[in-house]
């Protein structure tokens, strides 16, 4: 996903991604911190996908 323009000092998280693009699993960690979510997802256990998607967009992350 494309990172928000307000996010500073970001080139890319992995050397195979374009500039200002992050893997979704990294963004999920950021969202957990920003939203104050306490649950931990692992394996096939996931939060409500609609809730996570809305939080992503609310914080300025955009799909490619």
UniProtKB/TrEMBL annotation:
It is a multi-pass membrane protein. Pfam families: CER1-like_C (PF12076). Residues 1-63 form the Very-long-chain aldehyde decarbonylase CER1-like C-terminal domain. It comes from the Eukaryota. Signal peptide: none annotated. It is found in: Membrane. GO terms for cellular component: membrane. This is Very-long-chain aldehyde decarbonylase CER1-like C-terminal domain-containing protein. It comes from Gossypium klotzschianum.
């Amino acid at each position: 996903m494309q990172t928000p323009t307000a996010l500073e000092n970001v080139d890319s998280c992995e050397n195979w991604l374009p500039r200002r693009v992050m893997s979704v699993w990294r963004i999920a960690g950021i969202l957990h911190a920003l939203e104050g979510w306490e649950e931990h997802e692992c394996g096939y256990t996931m939060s409500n996908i609609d809730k996570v998607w809305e939080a992503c967009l609310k914080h300025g992350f955009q799909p490619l």
